[in-house]
Amino acid sequence: MGLADITLYLDLNQNGFLDEGEPPTITDINGEYSFQDLPPNIYILREVSPPGFASTTPDPIINVTSGSNITNVNIGNVNNRGEISGTKFNDTNTNGIFDPGENGLANINLYLDLNQNGFLDDGEPPTITDINGEYSFQDLPPDTYIIREAQNPEFDQTTPDPIINVTPGSNITNINIGNVSNRGEINGIKFNDRNANGIFEPGENGLDNFTLYLDLNDNSLLDIGEPATITDEFGFYSFEDLPPNTYTIREVQKLGFSQTTPDPIVDVTPGSDINDVNIGNFSEFSFL
């Protein structure tokens, strides 16, 4: 394919620059060019090197004689820029592979760490993943690049930082980078343990408006800063967005109730969704 809008010139003084008085021309939409009405001479044909391209052929040296019409003096260029693209994905099974059923992660900041210091610095190319987790770095000069992410506190990376060798004209795809949520969730039912056997059985109902909390300092009191939740009309509760840790769930004791199950101690790991952590209470009120 021809390249349009490339400036070529006859380097009469052979200094490698387009000087005043040297014949120039610009390639047309098809990349074609011509120099006409030339007196006999030996000419060196050069280009004003366009950004993003490198020449693949030597500068033609042409002997123009009287009446000559010299054609097919073709000059090759190649795009000397490259591109890297891929997907930032939710690596739910933490195997480091973008598997079917795993989704892309939107709004993750990635960058090329040019000085390899592990930080996004001024002048380093950044990009943000789109709604499908896709990203690209375009118009890159040949070099070896390290792709890093501006770490999201809710995720841990499951794949190493890619190291990519960009060569002239390369289009490097499927550089996929895995993350897994490093947060977890605990949920269950606060239930009326009518027979006080510590098991949530058919016919036993959930208890609403119970305050449960994560006793971070293990002092059996709900303190400022400790996550708390209130059971809904069905006795359901949940603690969400929890960093990995071991948590003890306690209740703010209600008058007329005694707990029939031990305080749950739950180990939350990255990405875990821990269900059916049910907590029983025995009511002294027969109508419950």
Indicate the CATH architecture of the largest domain. Answer: Sandwich
- Mean residue pLDDT: 94
Task: Tally the beta strands.
Answer: 24
Beta-strand residue percentage: 35-45%
CATH superfamily of the largest domain: Immunoglobulins
Under CATH, the topology of the largest domain can be stated as Immunoglobulin-like
Give me the secondary-structure category.
Answer: mainly beta
> Which ranges are low-confidence, i.e. pLDDT below 50, for 5 or more consecutive residues?
none
Q: Approximately how much helix is present in the residues?
A: under 10%
Query: Helices and strands, in N-to-C order?
Result: EEEEEEEEEEEEEEEEEEEEEEEE
What integer value in Å does the Rg equal?
35 Å
Distance between the termini: 82 Å
Main β-sheet description: 5 strands, mixed
The 3D shape can be described as rod-shaped
Describe the model.
Helices cover 0% and strands 39% of the residues. By secondary structure, the chain is mainly beta. The protein has three domains: 1-78, Immunoglobulin-like, CATH 2.60.40; 82-181, Immunoglobulins (Immunoglobulin-like, Sandwich); 184-283, Immunoglobulins (Immunoglobulin-like). Strands 7, 10, 12, 14 and 15 form a five-stranded mixed sheet that branches. The chain is rod-shaped and about 115 Å long. The model has no long low-confidence stretch (mean pLDDT 94).
